[in-house]
Amino acid sequence: xxxxxxTEKRMQQIKQRIPDFPLEMMRLMRMTYHIxxxxxxxxxxxxxxxxxxxxxYIVLAVLYGSEDETSTASTLGQACHEKPANLTRVCNDLxxxxxxxxxxxxxxxxxxxxxxxxxxxxxxKTVLPAVWQSTVRTYDGFSAAEMKQxxxxxxxxxxxxxx
Length: 163
Prior knowledge:
Blueprint lengths: L4 H13 L5 H26 L5 H11 L5 E3 H8 L3 H13 L3 E6 L2 E9 L1 H18 L8 H19 L1
Antiparallel strand pairs: 1-3, 2-3
Helix pairs in contact: 1-2, 2-6, 3-4, 3-6
């Protein structure tokens, strides 16, 4: 059976029951969900080899891409799309493993600063290539122009959702 066939059949059934159901839009939404879920599964399989999961990987990657490999907790939470409680749990685990450090911001003890350690930097430098190599097949057959078009449409969707 086609990977999306059963979902398509269910959506067709809904369309028959509710004629105003926006089938094309909902199809795209469900496809996006399926793609994202499949990519997360592939990524998590790679991350498991390094005793990481999606949340911890994102924290390490965001820190690695940040100036001075450091961020405030609030900025990190926004960049990772994590709620404070989950970010705290993830950071507790990363700190216990010696991958990050936490401390007060100079001049503002209320603000928590989170930084990569050498061990964290070494790990993310190993993991990043493994992750992108595992997901590259998602874009097999796409031309450079199609990739740009897909990127532009994705940016537009994100902007629409932010409004």
